[in-house]
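pasting input
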Amino acid sequence: MSKKKLVFSGVQPTGNLHLGNYLGALKNFVYLQKEMECIYCVVDLHAITVFQNPKELKNNVLETVASFLATGLNPEKSVIFNQSSVSGHAELAWIFNCVSRIGWLNRMTQFKDKAGSDKEKASVGLYIYPNLMASDILLYKATHVPVGADQKQHLELSRDIAQKFNNDFNCKDFFPLPEPLIPKNVSRIMSLRDGTKKMSKSEESDYSRINLKDNADEISKKIKKAKSDSEQIPNNLKLLENKPEALNLINIYSEISKTSLEKVLNEMSGKEYSYLKTKLTDLLISEITPVGKEIAKLLRDKSHLMKILEKGREKANIIAEENLKNIREKVGLI
Ligand code: AMP
Ligand code: TRP
């Protein structure tokens, strides 16, 4: 039986999307929209696994939708909605809480990172977060999931859950085993201040990341201050192995200029990093600042964004309800 290809991905509405989200996920979302049917979800239920100020959460959901549109997602082509508006996500997550194993969750590195040293105080939601993520994907029987490398382990768990459900309920091939789509060189954009940490919304210093809403001046200052290397740019990638900050800048440049890493090194070897930084700043300004301006413009008309969410909810809910009917049947729920 050949299964229809369907893309699903989610982004948390925790404010301020950055260059890591853009290169690791959003650009891929836009590309895939041309090739396949796609569902893109603002995962507000995932966001509340750590406390969110309710007013800010609402604004952040709309800002995330605005960022989707500003980077090129088309609501006529792709389904765009927020997770909590389709109750099937929470219902299937409960069923998956009963399929997934404690031992599987205990291995999740994101929980260990986010919960920090005092795990007793983390919310139960944060612990079972990957089960909800599996439910997001499998509620639609999605086959392909574009994400950054940090989500690979969660995707593997989703596959384990799908497989166990299919075995337990004797329904081979009922849930597809979703495939991660992880970009090659930009699956993990690193912090501009510390090349061993990923670029993240939660890092304290704003100088560690380029935000989609940054203006030209901010981008220029951040790249100028970014850590690089005191030696000249080498002609061989191997020589960058222990220089994560320098490699990160070269990776970003290669991706935005659509030039292979080898070509970039050919062109730049023997030059100082300031040369790369000047060129990178110009490229980032021309690619990112129009996105930021578009986000600001879209946020001036919140009712338009609400309408997009409502339309997306209707479309998503139809697929979700149809699948849930079969899922309840398999489990034996009346
Ligand atoms: P989040 O904002 O954590 O919901 O992430 C949204 C998407 O961006 C996910 O697919 C992440 O894997 C991806 N992502 C987040 N940070 C980075 C990063 N530093 N480099 C590459 N991808 C990232
Ligand atoms: N956990 C993902 C992140 O933090 C967000 C997410 C939630 C997601 N549900 C998903 C991503 C389903 C892909 C598919 O980035």
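fyi The pocket of tryptophan (ligand 2) is lined by residues 8-10, 12, 43, 46, 133, 136-137, 145, 147, 151, 154 (CB under 6 Å).
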